[in-house]
Amino acid sequence: MLRNFQANCLPVLIGSLPLHDHAESVELVFKYTPQIPLWVQLPVYREEGMIAQFLPGFPGLAIEKDKSFVNTADPSFDDDLLGFYKDYISVSEGETDIDSSRFTMTTDTAGGFFAFIEHLQHLPHRPIALKGQITGPITFGMGLTDENGKAIFYNEQLRDAAVKLLAQKARWQVKSLSEFGCPSIIFFDEPALAGFGSSAMISISRKEVEKCFEEVIDAVHNENGLAGIHVCANADWSLILESDLDIISFDAYAFFDKLILYPDHLKSFIERGGILAWGIVPTLNSDDIEKETTGSLVAKWEDQVREIAAIGIDKSTILAQTLITPSCGTGSLSIDLTTKVLTLTRQVSDEIRATEFKY
Fold first, then answer.
1. Which pTM value belongs to this model?
2. Using alpha carbons only, how large is the chain's radius of gyration in Å?
3. Those residues with Cβ within 8 angstroms of residue 172's Cβ, 6 or more apart along the chain or in another chain
4. Across residues 196-223, what is the average pLDDT?
5. How many other CB atoms are found less than 10 A from the CB of residue 335?
6. Residue 130 forms beta bridges with which residues?
7. N or C: which end of the chain has fewer CB within 10 A?
């Protein structure tokens, strides 16, 4: 695990942009967050949707009327599932190179990743770290259904296959990004966690969720990467803070008051080196984006830092273990609002670092 990584209030983005061109998205990323750049998802393309982007390689995958699902009733499903596990074992045991397996991403669904790699190959200097992302196992398992419309998370066999698919694709990202000689960070995007514990997910146990997390986090750690989670709403933060995640990305603008309700968990997370990625720049409401300024967001963040310091965490520790981010991706925003979000993210980070680190 890369414990030598220092966040130091640097800016980093969350996944998506409202563009049509991958090369243009890479340029925008390096304009605003050159220290920790990331590859970008462009949701204007259906194949780059949160679930669709990571579907290739899943056993029994079928498409009807532009809807993807797992067809367990197909006569070939059992053979396809067996082939999936054979491939998984072969890759896990080193008999097959993951680069030539079903667990890679492709230009068909992840053009942003390959545009990012191409750009990195021509950089004169290494960034401080590189960021990738993948849909988390809970969101993936709740978003993908079988032929009867039932979420695959409720099928133990399909859930296991989904977790293994995502774990290996995350591992492949870390392996690919690590070739550039700097720390690699993978965020698992988990908006579905906002529903954990509600009536919609009442039959899903904490143990099941923890087991899913453990497997995907271990895959990242085994490649010497940093594992983060992005939840852009409220959640059971004890579940997240007690995991082996290195980074927690949360909507600090709208939900900090919920996170601080877990002071003991939060203190333990930070004391073991955990990093908070503060989504202090709003993205979910256009009025909020338009009204906020660099100064107002820095002041809001400083108030929040004081609350965390009050639970017994030294401010210098908080600063060293902080990233500044938007509260969520900007794929659904206008170009003008997106530009403001990216500008605010960079400026908030710059102002904090100028004040606190004298950079």
1. 0.95
2. 20
3. 98, 99, 103, 104, 105
4. 87
5. 12
6. 184
7. C
